[in-house]
Write a structure and sequence with these properties.
Number of helices: 7
Distance between the termini: 30 Å
Number of strands: 0
Shape: globular
Helix content: 55-70%
Structural class: mainly alpha
Largest sheet: none
Radius of gyration: 15 Å
Order of helices and strands: HHHHHHH
Strand content: under 5%
C-alpha cells in the first residue's frame, strides 16, 4: 500500500487538502474508460499508459501550457534524499506549490486537451 508521507500530508493539509484517506489505485482499462482526461505526471507514466493501453496522455506541465516536461521526483533531484530532510521538505513544498499554481491553467485548457487526447 502507498501512503502519503507525513510531511507531505501535513503540507497538503496546510493548503486545504486532506489526504488522510488517500488510497493508491492500479491503473486499469476500466478506470481509463471512465475518465474524460488522463494526465501523466512523468514520462514514465506516459510510456506505461501508451504501452499497456495504447493511449496517449499529456504531461501535467504540457496540460498547463508549459513545455512538455515531467515533474521530477525527490530521488531524481536530491541525491542524498535519505539523509537530507531539509532538501526533501523544500522539494515537496516547491512541487506542491507549483502544481497548485498551475492547476487553473490546466482547467482553462480542458476543452482543448479533451479534443487532443480523447
Amino acid at each position: 500500500p502507498h501512503i502519503v508521507r507525513p510531511y507531505t500530508a501535513g503540507y497538503l493539509r496546510s493548503k486545504g487538502f486532506d489526504v488522510g484517506s488517500h488510497q493508491r489505485r492500479t491503473l486499469r482499462e476500466e478506470l481509463l474508460r471512465e475518465s474524460n482526461l488522463v494526465v501523466s505526471m512523468s514520462t514514465d507514466h506516459q510510456t506505461i499508459i501508451r504501452g499497456r493501453f495504447g493511449r496517449e496522455t499529456p504531461l501535467f506541465l504540457e496540460a498547463c501550457g508549459e513545455a512538455a516536461e515531467w515533474l521530477p521526483d525527490i530521488e531524481d533531484v536530491i541525491p542524498d534524499y535519505r539523509t537530507n530532510r531539509a532538501a526533501v521538505e523544500a522539494h515537496v513544498r516547491s512541487t506542491v506549490d507549483r502544481i497548485l499554481n498551475l492547476v487553473p491553467r490546466m482547467a482553462a485548457n480542458l476543452d482543448e486537451l479533451r479534443q487532443k487526447y480523447p
